[in-house]
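Q: What residues go here?
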């Protein structure tokens, strides 16, 4: 894409030599015309022709103007009296010289302009062709390695240099995924030259050995194009480079979108299979567990506390009750996610829902739980059974992670500015690890084993809580207490009954 030929700095001596040769040739032809007896007008035309040829085979207007002046002086020196001097006997020749010079300059300028227009057209044609081939190749690329290999090769061929394309993988520049293609050769880039690149810098940044041009996608930066620093880009090269970078960014965005759709479809398929499996297992376990619990309860009533078999029966009943609760949680979660458990929202008194959950946990654990609620009766639109299950899960989680005697409290209050009711379950346990906070509501996520976490769990309770609260249009969050050890779980319920809830 670089302009080369006569007129470039490396070929100035050759260009001047061509101009001199053309003037000499015009002078020789003019001498022949005078010997034959042709009129001076023909000799003038021959000199103007030499100026046109100079403009044709050189670049720029300067050489045409120099040739115009040189042709006029040569005509004056060889073909006007007194010959072989620059003096003029007939003043009318001054008009001839002026017209000759002006004609030569105008024709030279027009010739140079037409030639430049032709060169520009060729450049644009080459740019269009390069972009067309790049776009066609990128359309057929099916992975990121192919895209950067095609892009680096096309950019390198257009700029006639070693070009390198890199992309961001997980928001980092990935050197191991870089592509390089140029006549089968590989350029080694120093590690120190990578460090100056700033991902957030949207302008062209300069490294130790190269220029970096960012590849920007619709939502984020995708990578960068590296051009050796010794390459001086012209305006046309900069323009085509930007166009090629835009085409590369579109291809990267397209591939990422396709990969994201595939991943989403795979995740949806996995979730469907997992839900079906969980439902099947839960249904198969439900009936025998109910029988085991009933038999254990009957045997417990048939034995007294002094009977050595009584403790064994109690263990059987407790373990089967835990398994039964687990099965019910799994079924509830799968129904919520599949939309098979419709909400029945009604205006319910908060005190009754909180009291039912607290009494249930008290019976199971024997722990004291403090309750803090408004003095006046507070009615909230909710599915009372599901919200009570949320509170039970949060309280059981608090019991599991606190020592006997540690404080566990349920608080409820109304926030008028946001038109919502806030439920809070706090404890004085060991709190939540910082690394666990972003993941505690994920399915089957359990905290790494610690002394305070000795109680078992499969990571479904908080997931069910989140699903129920979101189904009500609320939010749920967890954080550590700021006034000492312990954790806080808060969820909100909107006070307005939405149209979808009314239809249900």
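A:
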């Amino acid at each position: 894409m670089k302009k080369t030929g006569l007129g470039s700095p490396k070929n100035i001596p050759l260009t001047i030599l061509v101009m001199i040769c053309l003037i000499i040739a015009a002078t020789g032809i003019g001498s022949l015309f005078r010997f034959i007896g042709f009129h001076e007008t023909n000799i003038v035309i021959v000199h103007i022709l030499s100026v046109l040829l100079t403009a044709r085979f050189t670049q720029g207007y300067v050489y045409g103007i120099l040739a115009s002046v040189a042709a006029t002086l040569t005509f004056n020196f060889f073909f006007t009296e007194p010959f072989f001097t620059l003096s003029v006997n007939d003043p009318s020749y001054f008009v001839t010289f002026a017209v000759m010079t002006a004609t030569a300059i105008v024709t030279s300028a027009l010739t140079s302009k037409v030639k430049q227009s032709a060169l520009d057209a060729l450049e644009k044609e080459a740019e269009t062709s390069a972009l067309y081939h790049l776009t066609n190749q990128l359309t057929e690329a099916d992975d990121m390695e192919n895209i950067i290999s095609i892009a680096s090769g096309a950019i390198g061929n257009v700029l006639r240099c070693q070009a390198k394309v890199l992309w961001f993988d997980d928001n980092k520049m990935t050197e191991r995924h870089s592509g390089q293609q140029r006549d089968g050769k590989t350029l080694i880039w120093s590690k120190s030259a990578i460090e100056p690149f700033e991902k957030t810098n949207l302008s062209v940044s300069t490294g130790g050995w190269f220029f970096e041009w960012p590849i920007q996608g619709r939502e984020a930066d995708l990578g960068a194009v590296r051009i050796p620093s010794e390459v001086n880009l012209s305006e046309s090269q900069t323009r085509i480079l930007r166009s090629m970078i835009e085409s590369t960014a579109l291809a990267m965005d397209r591939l990422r979108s396709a990969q994201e759709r595939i991943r989403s479809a795979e995740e949806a398929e996995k979730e469907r299979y997992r839900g079906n499996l969980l439902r099947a297992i839960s249904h198969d376990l439900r009936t025998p567990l109910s029988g085991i619990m009933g038999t254990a309860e009957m045997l417990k009533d048939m034995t007294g506390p002094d009977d050595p078999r009584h403790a064994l029966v109690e263990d059987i009943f407790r373990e089967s009750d835990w398994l039964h609760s687990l099965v019910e949680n799994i079924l509830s979660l799968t129904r919520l996610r599949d939309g098979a458990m419709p909400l029945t929202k009604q205006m319910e008194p908060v005190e009754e829902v909180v009291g039912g959950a607290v009494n249930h946990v008290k019976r199971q654990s024997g722990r004291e739980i403090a309750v803090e609620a408004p003095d006046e009766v507070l009615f909230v639109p909710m599915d009372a059974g599901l919200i009570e299950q949320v509170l039970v899960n949060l309280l059981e989680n608090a019991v599991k992670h606190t020592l006997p005697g540690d404080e566990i409290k349920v608080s409820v209050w109304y926030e008028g500015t946001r038109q919502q009711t806030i439920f809070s379950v706090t404890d004085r346990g060991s709190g939540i690890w910082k690394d666990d906070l972003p993941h505690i509501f994920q399915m089957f996520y359990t905290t790494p084993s610690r002394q305070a976490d000795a109680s078992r769990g499969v990571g479904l309770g908080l997931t069910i809580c989140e699903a129920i609260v979101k189904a009500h249009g609320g939010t749920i969050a967890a954080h550590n207490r700021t006034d000492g050890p312990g954790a806080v779980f808060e969820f909100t319920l909107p006070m307005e009954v939405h149209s979808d809830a009314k239809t249900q």
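A: Context that may help when evaluating the design: DSSP finds eleven helices and twelve strands in the chain. The longest helix spans residues 235-302.
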